[in-house]
């Protein structure tokens, strides 16, 4: 019964996302797709948006619109979706012709809402993860201030998608313990995780990497951990795809080298499937070109020896 | 080896710059965009800038690992901006009144010129600082990603902190002209100058200074931004130094030119002012420090001078009841010294001075007429009691009594006065008031006649002072006596006097109210303890018993009379049987002279009585012996009195005459004498055996005093000499039915010197025994004890009785050693004694 008020809030957010009533800021993607949003929804969770509109200091705030020119339009759309639905659900990219056909953004967004509307019930349960809420006795995302978690990489509070799975012992990577940063006991002898049952058919590795980058760029910690989890889940099943090589480049080029989580996910995967992956030309090219990656892999190859680096 | 190690531990191993796909981010094209925007920001044209665009550009530079380059570029940009544009702007406001200084650093212009110019400078600095804060806030927004990624990873101060450091270096720390003062120095000087104007009463723009103080509080000595290295502290130190100088001078000047009251008010005002100034003009964090400075300069170092100021210092305030000013002094010193030692000392000195005056005045009064005391006894038979009431000033002895009463009153007044000061002005401070009390005690105890005077004060009140007073008034009188008594350390001496005085009051029925007497005793019991009042209470008990005895004897006589011959009239006897150890009977000897000492010891039964009196006396002795066997009665006739019924030729009525027992014996002689015959002094003496002194005084009363001249003396003169003859005065015409024949020296007066010495000697003797007893008691328990410790313990044990004289204790210890109660321990490291069982 405690779920009802919560469901009411989430439902309201959902409605707000669809209707965009009362919106007071418009986000444009570089393809001019238009996303009317609410400052009250975005600013408390993103340092970037907070500053952009605060105190009418910048043009963005005074004019009430800004363009996120750095991101793919799809990333922008999912970013906005995340702000309202606490999750993003990449749609299957439409066929080439369809994409060119629906270049006019507003139409597309209408079409989208119709589509999401049709899967409402399923998505609702999936996105808000009521089971997670009850399991933790409160909203799964408990990050009250963006500033507090601005730099944080809190893995525990990762994605609802993960929490939504019954049974806490379950790991998206099969029976391996979750991968931690730093001195976790990753040994070479460890077997690669089984493909996660949550992984979708579409790899979407590049997309998740870009979402992660967007989370980093705009200071949305929750989005970062959500994207990271999705990325890892997809990797368990799609590491073999050609898209992986591209995702590697995205990971290494869109986040600072101090941001380790995605890089480790990449290096771990190459480590587990090295024999197969390193033979691939595009992976080889990536390893050759990206020093950081080569170094990560070298570290893993020396794992059997005593830890040397602090 | 060391080098490699440290490199590994410190800096991270950096990947090569090159090698990233898409490392084509063109710093050289992106930077101008940012730089242009920064310029806009600094010139307040930011509203047209897109945050998203600037952020994106900075983000990309950082992402492409050009964070360090960007950081340095921004720093260099800010450095130049501050060094050229901002600084020039500020330096331009440095107009001549600020730059022309004399050797002492003070400008030569008038204060209003300086103020205007200073404010101009302060304003421009304030604006520069505030603008810069806003601008750097915006830059921080744009460079947020750089702060987050580059500065965090490379342990660089945030760009904001960095730029604040640049502001400090470029604006405040750079000399105005080569090799001249820095703007920080100028700022300090101007602020101090303005504060000085404020102190001098000129209005200044406090908020303007406060803004600049904010700036100093926001800047640090180094880019590490250590909390206790704020630039403000540097200013604060100069401020405190300058303030100390100022207040030192001001305090000295005020001590010379002003009075203590104004000084106090001024000091208080200054402290409050400085407090307010910290709130309104400087920083609250300075409050405590500047307060300490002002308190130090205006109070701590000046307190002594202030208290001792002539014609306005504490002495003046006390003399003139300046309670408020005293409270100011108190408040001031309380700020710097929780013990208020200067004020305490001053108050103690005053108490001692004023108390000594009181003591001296009392001594002067009593010693002005020492020779005439004896003469006073011979004053023509005037009843002492009446004389005390009516002609006080004329009689030297009474004058002494008055001195005693006055002394107690004065002491009490002194106490009241200082008590009032303590409560009104010193908020009943414990330290000060107990110090004052100690001084009061010293005053009382240095006065050699304290014990006697206090007892005399009570005596006088018991005899007449409390007459017609309400219960509350009596209560307060008793309380007064107790208050002075509290100060007294020689309680044993007081006890001696009190006993003596009480004795006379009881026997001569001089007490107005026995109830009040008893109240007094119970008060003393509470104050001084049970043992103190034991003997006094015994005296009251004797009085009650005597009452019962008299009644019993009266009944006994009546019984005898009924049975036997009824021809003789019964003589009523009222008797006081006094326990000899309890009553200070020697008190009654003093007046009769020491020639009677032996007699008084040997008993009084040498007096010759007429038969009816003799019968009565022996009758009582038998009666008493029946009741209490083994007791010896000694008769003190000199203390008794008698009621006679007398007929005088020139009066038709029967008169009631009250006179002393001796006078009665004398008068009875004349009953049987044929008319016209006379008796010589020697004959009277032989027929009565009355001691010569008592005889002479009684004859004086009967033959010289005009109101009771029952006898005629031959030759007619004041003094009674041998060979004088006495006969019944047929011409005596009494004016009242009741006639009271007074006898000289019945009242309690101040002792004369001889008496006092005697009392003291006696007291010292008894103290000697008490000390010996105490020493033996201690040693018996301790067996061995060092000398010093024995002294201390003895003094402690005896302190509730009196304050033992150390020499006396030493002498007594010597005595005990001689009598082999103690022995010196030869081998002890410190002088010690051993108890010999």
Fill in the keyword field for this structure:
heterodimer; A: 310 residues; mainly alpha; Potassium Channel Kv1.1, Chain A; 2 domains; three-stranded mixed β-sheet; 17 helices; 3 strands; 4% strand; elongated; B: 837 residues; 5 helical Cullin repeat like; three-stranded antiparallel β-sheet; 35 helices; 9 strands; disordered N terminus
What would the principal axes of the Cα set say about the shape of chain A?
A: elongated
The chain-level structural class of chain A is mainly alpha
Number of domains of chain B: 5
Q: How would you state the average pLDDT of chain B, rounded?
A: 80
Average pLDDT metric of chain A: 71
DSSP strand (E) fraction of chain A?
A: under 5%
Global shape of chain B? elongated
State the helix count of chain A: 17
The largest sheet of chain A has its strands arranged as 2-1-3
**Approximately how much helix is present in the residues of chain A?**
40-55%
Determine the N-to-C terminus distance of chain B: 87 Å
The secondary-structure element order of chain A is: HEEHHHEHHHHHHHHHHHHH
Strand order of the largest sheet of chain B: 1-2-6
Major sheet summary line of chain A: 3 strands, mixed
- Rounded radius of gyration of chain A (Å): 20 Å
Strand content range of chain B: under 5%
Overall domain count of chain A: 2
Q: Terminal Cα separation of chain A, in Å?
A: 50 Å
For the sheet with most strands of chain B, the description reads: 3 strands, mixed
Chain oligomer state = heterodimer
Region (Disordered) (chain A): 165-199
Pfam families (chain A): BTB (PF00651)
Domain BTB (chain A): 23-84
Protein name (chain A): BTB domain-containing protein
């Amino acid at each position: 019964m405690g779920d009802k008020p919560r469901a009411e809030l989430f439902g309201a957010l959902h409605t707000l996302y669809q209707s965009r009533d009362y919106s007071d800021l418009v986000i444009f993607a570089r393809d001019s797709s238009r996303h009317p949003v609410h400052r009250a929804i975005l600013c408390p969770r993103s340092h970037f948006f907070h500053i952009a509109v605060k105190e009418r200091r910048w043009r963005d705030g005074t004019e009430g619109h800004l363009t996120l020119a750095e991101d793919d339009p799809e990333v922008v759309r999912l970013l906005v979706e995340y702000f309202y639905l606490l999750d993003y659900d990449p749609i299957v990219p439409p066929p080439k012709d369809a994409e060119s056909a629906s270049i006019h953004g507003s139409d597309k967004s209408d079409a989208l809402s119709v589509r999401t509307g049709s899967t409402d019930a399923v998505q609702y349960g999936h996105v808000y993860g009521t089971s997670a809420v009850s399991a933790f006795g409160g909203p799964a995302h408990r990050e009250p201030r963006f500033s507090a978690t601005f730099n944080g990489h809190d893995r525990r509070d990762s994605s609802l998608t993960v929490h939504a799975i019954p049974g806490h012992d379950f790991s998206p990577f099969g029976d391996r313990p979750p991968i931690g940063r730093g001195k976790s006991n990753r040994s070479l002898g460890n077997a690669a995780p089984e493909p996660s049952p949550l992984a979708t058919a579409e790899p979407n590795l590049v997309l998740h990497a870009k979402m992660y980058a967007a989370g980093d760029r705009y200071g949305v910690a929750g989005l970062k951990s959500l994207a990271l989890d999705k990325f890892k889940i997809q990797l368990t099943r799609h590491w073999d795809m050609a898209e992986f090589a591209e995702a590697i480049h995205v990971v290494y080029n869109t986040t600072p080298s101090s941001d380790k989580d995605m890089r480790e996910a990449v290096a771990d995967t190459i480590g587990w499937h090295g024999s197969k992956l390193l033979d691939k030309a595009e992976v080889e090219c990536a390893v050759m070109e990206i020093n950081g990656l080569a170094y990560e892999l070298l570290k893993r190859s020396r794992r059997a020896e005593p830890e040397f680096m602090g | 080896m060391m080098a490699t190690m440290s490199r590994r531990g410190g800096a991270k191993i950096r990947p090569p710059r090159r090698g990233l796909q898409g490392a084509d981010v063109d710093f050289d094209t992106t930077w101008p965009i940012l730089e242009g925007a920064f310029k806009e920001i600094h010139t307040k044209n930011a509203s047209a800038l897109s945050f998203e665009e600037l952020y994106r550009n900075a983000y990309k530079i950082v992402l492409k690992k050009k964070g360090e380059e960007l950081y340095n570029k921004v720093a260099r940009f800010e450095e130049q901006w501050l060094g050229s544009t901002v600084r020039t702007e500020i330096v331009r406001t440095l107009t001549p009144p600020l730059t022309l200084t004399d050797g002492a650093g003070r400008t030569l212009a008038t204060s209003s010129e300086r103020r205007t110019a200073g404010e101009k400078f302060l304003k421009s600095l304030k604006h520069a600082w505030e603008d810069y804060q806003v601008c750097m806030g915006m830059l921080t927004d744009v460079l947020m990603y750089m702060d987050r990624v580059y500065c965090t990873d490379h342990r660089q101060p945030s760009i904001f902190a960095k730029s604040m450091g640049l502001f400090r270096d470029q604006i405040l720390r750079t000399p105005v002209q080569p090799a001249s003062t820095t703007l920080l120095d100028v700022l300090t000087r101007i602020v101090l100058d303005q504060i000085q104007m404020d102190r001098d009463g000129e209005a200044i723009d406090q908020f303007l200074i406060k803004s600049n103080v904010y700036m100093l509080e926001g800047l640090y000595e180094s880019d590490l931004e250590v909390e206790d290295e704020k630039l403000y502290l540097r200013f604060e130190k100069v401020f405190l130094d300058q303030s100390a100088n100022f207040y030192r001078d001001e305090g000295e000047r005020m001590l010379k030119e002003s009075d203590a009251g104004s000084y106090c008010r001024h000091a208080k005002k200054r402290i409050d002012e400085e407090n307010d100034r910290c709130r309104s003009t400087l920083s609250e964090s300075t409050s405590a420090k500047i307060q300490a400075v002002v308190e130090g300069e205006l109070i701590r170092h000046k307190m002594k001078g202030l208290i001792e100021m002539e014609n306005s210092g504490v002495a003046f305030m006390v003399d003139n009841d300046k309670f408020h000013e005293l409270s100011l002094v108190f408040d001031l010193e309380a700020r710097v010294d929780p013990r208020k030692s200067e004020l305490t000392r001053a108050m103690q000195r005053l108490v001692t001075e004023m108390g000594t005056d009181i003591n001296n005045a009392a001594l002067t009064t009593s010693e002005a007429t020492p020779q005439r005391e004896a003469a006073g006894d011979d004053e023509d038979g005037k009843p002492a009691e009446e004389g005390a009431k009516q002609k006080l000033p004329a009689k030297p002895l009474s004058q002494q009594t008055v001195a005693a009463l006055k002394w107690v009153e004065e002491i009490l007044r002194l106490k009241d006065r200082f008590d009032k000061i303590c409560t009104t002005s010193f908020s009943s401070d414990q330290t000060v008031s107990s110090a004052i009390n100690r001084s009061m005690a010293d005053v009382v105890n240095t006065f050699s006649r304290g014990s006697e005077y206090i007892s005399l004060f009570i005596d006088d009140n018991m005899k007449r002072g409390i007459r017609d007073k309400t219960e509350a008034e009596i209560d307060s009188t008793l309380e007064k006596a107790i208050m002075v008594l509290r100060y007294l350390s020689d309680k044993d001496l007081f006890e001696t006097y009190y006993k003596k005085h009480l004795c006379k009051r009881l026997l001569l029925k001089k007490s107005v109210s026995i109830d009040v007497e008893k109240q007094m005793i119970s008060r003393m019991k509470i104050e001084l303890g049970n043992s103190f009042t034991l003997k006094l209470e015994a005296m009251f008990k004797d009085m009650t018993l005597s009452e019962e005895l008299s009644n019993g004897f009266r009944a006994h006589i009546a019984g005898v009379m009924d049975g036997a011959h009824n021809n003789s009239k019964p003589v009523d006897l009222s008797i006081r049987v006094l326990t000899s150890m309890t009553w200070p009977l020697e008190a009654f000897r003093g007046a009769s002279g020491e020639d009677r000492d032996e007699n008084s010891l040997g008993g009084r039964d040498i007096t010759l009585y007429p038969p009816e009196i003799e019968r009565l006396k022996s009758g009582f002795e038998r009666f008493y012996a029946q009741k209490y066997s083994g007791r010896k009665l000694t008769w003190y006739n000199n203390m008794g009195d008698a009621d006679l019924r007398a007929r005088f030729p020139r009066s038709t009525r029967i008169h009631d005459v009250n006179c002393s027992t001796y006078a009665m014996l004398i008068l009875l002689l004349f009953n049987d004498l044929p008319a016209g015959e006379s008796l010589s002094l020697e004959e009277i003496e032989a027929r009565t055996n009355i001691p010569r002194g008592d005889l002479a005084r009684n004859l004086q009363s009967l033959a010289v005093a005009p109101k009771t001249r029952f006898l005629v003396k031959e030759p007619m003169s004041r003094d009674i000499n041998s060979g004088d003859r006495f006969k019944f005065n047929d011409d005596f015409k009494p004016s009242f039915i009741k006639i009271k024949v007074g006898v000289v020296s019945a009242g309690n007066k101040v002792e004369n010197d001889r008496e006092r010495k005697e009392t003291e000697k006696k007291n010292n003797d008894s103290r000697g025994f008490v000390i010996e007893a105490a020493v033996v008691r201690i040693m018996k328990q301790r067996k061995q004890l060092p000398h010093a410790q024995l002294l201390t313990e003895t003094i402690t044990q005896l302190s509730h009785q009196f304050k033992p004289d150390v020499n006396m204790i030493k002498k007594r210890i010597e005595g005990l050693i001689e009598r082999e109660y103690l022995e010196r321990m030869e081998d002890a490291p410190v002088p010690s004694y051993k108890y010999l069982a």
